[in-house]
Design goal:
The protein is an alpha/beta fold and 475 residues long. The chain contains 14 helices and 12 strands. Helix 1 crosses helix 7, helix 2 crosses helix 4 and helix 9 runs parallel beside helix 10. It starts with 6 loop residues before the first helix and ends with a strand. The structure holds S-adenosylmethionine.
């Protein structure tokens, strides 16, 4: 997704946060694997052509060594880098807490700190709201009750040795949040500058720059209906062009399905954290006829324990006959395009039943909630896998994927790491299978996956609220 979403509010806050500032990987519990293929590291034989072609942009530890030594150090480098990448989850968790602080509605009566500070009464008023929200969030995490997000925020704070139940701990938590706001504001500001710089050049490679924009950022899990819609549009286009035949999609993988905690676009927290992309892809594939109704299996690959545990728990409940609820809020002021609204209205109609439940959305928010049928939830296999450095292997032909989805995940990596990821994807795709991503990737002749087209999806009338989905095809 384009990277502009809350520049304004964070820029406003940056000054306040800096002024105010007074004052740190977990690995998932093993994911129940129903299939036998294990996650294995990318072998050096497959990495070698990438290392050779991208010699000028290797990570420093590899660049510092002579080419003759790289093979012998490869396994060690992969396992060290795997730990380093997974350690980035902690910073992503902090980013999610910042979104909760700014946009959540369950722990405060204060207005949301909207992207457009003029809509909340100007910069001073925004700063005041954020100070109040910080105090309310701290009070919330001191007594989180059954609120899963507050419980999680408390864990994040506890990692820093802070106990929000004590007055001293609350002050430490305030200082910590102020620092987080400043850090996130600085990062968002630097992304905006990077985009601005490339935009100011004639024919600047904006899509390429955007595609690796978060290469040093914490790995966050946030997600929303937007990329689900973009993938739906891509599948529809591929089907209408005859590139995806009726009933041809049997095995699908979603890389980085995410967990909707408090995303920075709509950012609500009045329902339980949830994942939507795997359900959306199954729903779209069935509706568009590219998958046969009873013949679709979906695998998710994620390195976040929170995401994997969430999906596994849903699956366990499904085996006991319980459906899974997906809640889709729509802020009426979001200026969504009619086709996104139409998608929202029908989301899940092929895999579940609409429900109203007991949720009470905030004013101005319309709700669609769907009870996803247990057999659909049971068709999802959640695997712990770092796509940059790992793949499932060995795979027999019928285990290879017809379709792999990767939205808002490869943007967190450098071109070298993206190229390793693409080699891992290629190894798991069947010939003729597709990878759909909203990132443009460097295509090396030695990796048998190449872009054959793309589609643009505009979500709303807000500037830059759009995505380009690139269709990569395995030779
Ligand atoms: C920002 S969320 C995107 C969620 C969803 N795909 C979307 O487009 O809204 C990124 C997801 O990718 C996962 N992720 C990040 N790096 C990954 C990696 N190297 N391998 C597998 N999953 C990864 C994160 O844990 C998170 O679930």
């Amino acid at each position: 997704m384009r990277a502009v979403l809350y520049v304004s509010v964070l820029t406003t806050l940056a000054g306040m946060a800096r002024f105010d500032a007074g004052a740190g990987g977990q690995r998932s519990s093993p994911v129940a694997a129903e299939r036998t293929a294990p996650a294995v590291p990318i072998p050096y034989s497959e990495a070698r052509p990438i290392v050779e072609r991208l010699a000028a942009s290797l990570p420093p530890e590899l660049a510092a060594r002579p080419a003759s030594e790289l093979e012998s150090m490869w396994a060690d480098w992969v396992s060290r880098r795997n730990r380093e990448i997974r350690a980035r989850l902690e910073r992503g968790d902090e980013d999610s807490i910042v979104n909760l602080l700014l946009f959540g509605t369950t722990f405060t009566r204060l207005p949301r700190a909207l992207n457009d500070s003029s809509r909340v009464g100007g910069r001073e008023r925004t700063a005041e709201i954020v100070r109040g929200r910080t105090a309310d969030l701290i009070a919330g995490i001191a007594a989180p009750g059954g609120n899963e997000r507050l419980q999680f925020a408390r864990q994040v704070v506890a990692r820093r040795g802070i106990d929000p139940a004590t007055p001293g701990g609350r002050e430490q938590a305030r200082t910590y949040f102020v620092e987080l706001l400043a850090r996130v504001a600085d990062e968002v500001d630097s992304y905006a500058r990077e985009i601005q710089t490339v935009r100011s050049k004639p024919n600047g490679p904006e899509f390429a720059v955007r595609s690796s924009l978060y290469r040093a950022r914490g790995l966050s899990s946030d997600t929303s209906i937007r990329p689900d819609f973009a993938i739906d549009r891509a599948l529809e286009t591929l089907a209408s062009m005859g590139m995806l035949a009726a009933g041809s999609v049997r095995r699908v993988a979603v890389i980085g399905p995410g967990l909707d905690f408090t995303d920075k676009a709509e950012g609500y927290d009045f329902y339980s954290p949830q994942t939507t992309q795997p359900f959306s892809v199954i729903d779209s594939s069935r509706r568009l006829g590219v998958a046969k109704t009873d013949d679709l299996r979906l695998t998710t690959f994620d390195l976040s324990p929170r995401v994997n545990v969430h999906l596994q728990a849903a699956r366990r409940r499904a085996s006991a006959g319980e459906p899974n609820v997906v809640v889709l809020p729509r802020n009426r002021e979001g200026r969504w395009r009619p086709d996104l609204i139409a998608f929202w209205r029908t989301f899940g109609s092929r895999i579940g039943e609409p429900t109203t439940g007991s949720l009470s959305p905030p004013d101005g928010v319309d709700l669609r909630a769907v009870l996803i049928r247990p057999e659909v939830v049971s068709s999802i296999d959640a695997r712990d896998l770092n796509i940059v450095l790992e793949r499932l292997a060995p795979l027999v032909d019928e285990e290879r994927f017809d379709l792999i989805i990767a939205t808002n995940i490869l943007v967190y990596y450098s071109v070298f790491e993206q190229s390793l990821a693409l080699a891992n994807v290629a190894s798991m795709l069947r010939p003729g299978g597709f990878l759909l991503s909203n990132n443009v990737l460097v295509e090396l002749p030695t990796t048998p996956v190449h872009a054959i087209g793309d589609n643009r999806v505009i979500y709303s009338d807000r500037p830059d609220d759009s995505d380009d989905i690139v269709w990569y095809r395995r030779q």
